[in-house]
């Protein structure tokens, strides 16, 4: 493909989307260095007619692409979907329907949990990809021939990989298992400032009033980062918000002593005002996540060992059932509710490890 031959109009996009067929490979290229939101540069689409590259920097409505992503009758194939989903959400305001992730599918077939795209191309198709443009200015126009070749390769093999994976999953009786987990990924709530502050380092040591103040400070920072489209840490860093939250009162001298000079000059007055609002806020703050005790750590290790045994027996990647951070969350949920989280109450996980995990958690309570 010639570097200048990008889809740049809604009419061109509509025509190419119609020709892609029922199974479409999708990838995105974007830049995110000094911005809050990812800057979309390119959408790559692979279908029956080959690969098309859509310029995400043009002033189009992208309605045909949105319709494709939302169409439940057309399967969208992607690899490592988390960042791509964020690009689609912020740029197009959509969450794809009927999405499958080749990286996760590979894990259900006993492969590496976070295998790279190049590894899957070699594993399923016997092809070796050249080194890619991993660091590239995707906003430049025209794109170089090397960039176009990389963008093309990064989506061209998704459909044949998924064809082999879906057949193997069906043969192994794992296709419905994989689709259940894909839907769980899509149903996962987006994090908010009211939950981010709970996981900040050391927040569990704060008192209830301090947590309320911190929650207000985090809410303000989120609004400011979004307004200026800059990373959160380029406004006020986590550790500085924590220090402010511990203060009973914020006088100008206190602010200046706790923050870098440039930060205090820019945000000192507004932070003091937000701090006062936090002190007056009567909305309770949720409890912070405390570090696990040694005993709890032993329970998590027992869960992990049991999950890995079942994974080995089933021939799936151990992280599918026994990822440490997931098991820690399961333990905390069980301690709070007396039962396993919802993902264990139905479907394949309930049948495979529901009783095993419940017994371990009950014994460890």
Specify the helix fraction band.
55-70%
**Main β sheet profile:** 5 strands, mixed
Distance between the termini: 61 Å
Indicate the radius of gyration in whole angstroms. 24 Å
Report what the structure shows.
This protein has 365 residues and is α/β, with parallel strands linked by helices. It is 55% helix and 8% strand. It has helices spanning 10-18, 63-70, 82-92, 102-108, 117-125, 145-156, 158-172, 175-187, 193-196, 208-228, 238-245, 252-258, 261-280, 294-314, 319-322, 324-337, 347-364, and strands at 23-31, 39-47, 50-55, 75-78, 99-101. A 5-stranded mixed beta sheet has the order 3-2-1-4-5, sandwiched between helices. The longest helix is centred in the middle third of the chain and has 21 residues, at 208-228. The protein is flat. 34% of the residues are buried.
Structure in a nutshell:
By secondary structure, the protein is of the alpha/beta class.
